[in-house]
């Protein structure tokens, strides 16, 4: 029982043993016996509490002795644990040193790689700039080359405009003077009335390939006619008098166009046929320009697609 509860019980017992006070403030007992009992109640419990504290201290001392005894009994085990901890510590320290050395090496390698990457980045930047400059230069060169190619093709085509190609003549029939032979051949083939005067031929020669065997196709003769008007008459008459026969052999006369000009002109063949069937008059100007005359209207086309579009419009009108 606690000190406070015992004091409260003694106080209540003393109040029940004395008469009721006459005044409100008359609450403290004046009887010496009663005061003794109250003082005893106040001094009993503190002594009892001190006894309990002494008992607790004695028990605590016993517990400490027990703990020390238990620790002494496991002294060898604790020594082993300490030894094991030291071993582990040394092992960890060795591994940490190895890891630290490896990290130092990795940091050095990483630094070298970063430097190399920086150098590569700089080199790539420089290379990219050089490639851009080369691309720009190549574009300019390609444009200039295209322009020069067109000029060369035009010059080659114009230089061959006065040439004619004679196909089907027997190999060696021209003799040692091919220019004179071609001049007589044209007058004989197309008629003396068409050419009162001999056609002036600047030069004539075979195409550049080996001489064929007797059973092979003869080489083509290329002749350069001096006058443009003669060239136009020869080509016109050869178309009108086709097929042409010379000493029992069929021969052909064509203009001497370059491969590119020939391809450009052949691209108009289909649309040219359609326009002629529609009643138009067509002529193909050099190098590849289609001129169409229909209903007193003249149109020119340099692209087969545009000519096809015009032919489709005529079909739609009909």
UniProtKB/TrEMBL annotation:
Domain of life according to the entry: Eukaryota
Coiled-coil segments on the chain, per record: 89-116
Keyword annotations of the record: Coiled coil
Keyword Coiled coil: yes
Keyword Coiled coil: yes
Alphabetical list of InterPro entries matching this protein: Transposase_22 (IPR004244)
PANTHER family in the record: L1 TRANSPOSABLE ELEMENT-RELATED
Name of the protein described by the UniProt record: L1 transposable element RRM domain-containing protein
Natural source organism: Xiphophorus maculatus (Southern platyfish)
């Amino acid at each position: 029982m606690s000190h406070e509860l015992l004091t409260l019980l003694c106080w209540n017992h003393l109040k029940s043993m004395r008469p009721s006070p006459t005044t409100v403030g008359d609450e403290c007992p004046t009887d010496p016996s009663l005061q003794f009992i109250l003082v005893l109640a106040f001094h009993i419990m503190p002594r009892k509490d001190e006894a309990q504290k002494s008992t607790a201290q004695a028990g605590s001392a016993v517990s400490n002795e027990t703990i020390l005894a238990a620790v002494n009994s496991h002294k060898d085990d604790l020594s082993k644990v300490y030894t094991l901890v030291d071993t582990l510590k040394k092992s960890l320290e060795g591994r940490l040193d190895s890891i630290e050395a490896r990290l130092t090496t990795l940091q050095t390698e990483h630094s070298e790689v970063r430097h190399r990457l920086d150098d590569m980045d700089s080199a790539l930047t420089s290379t990219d700039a050089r490639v851009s400059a080369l691309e720009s230069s190549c574009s300019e060169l390609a444009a200039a080359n295209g322009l020069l190619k067109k000029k060369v093709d035009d010059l080659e085509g114009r230089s061959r405009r006065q040439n004619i190609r004679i196909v089907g003549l027997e190999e060696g029939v021209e003799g040692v003077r091919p220019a004179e032979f071609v001049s007589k051949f044209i007058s004989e083939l197309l008629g003396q009335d068409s050419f009162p005067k001999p056609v002036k031929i600047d030069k004539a020669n075979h195409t550049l390939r080996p001489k064929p065997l007797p059973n092979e196709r003869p080489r083509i003769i290329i002749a350069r006619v001096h006058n443009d008007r003669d060239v136009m008459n020869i080509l016109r008459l050869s178309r009108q008098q086709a097929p042409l026969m010379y000493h029992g052999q069929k021969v052909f006369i064509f203009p001497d166009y370059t491969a590119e000009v020939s391809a450009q002109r052949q691209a108009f063949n289909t649309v040219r046929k359609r326009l002629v069937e529609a009643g138009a008059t067509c002529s193909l100007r050099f190098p590849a320009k289609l001129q169409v005359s229909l209903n007193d209207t003249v149109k020119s086309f340099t692209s087969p697609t545009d000519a096809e579009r015009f032919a489709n419009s005529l079909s739609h009108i009909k």
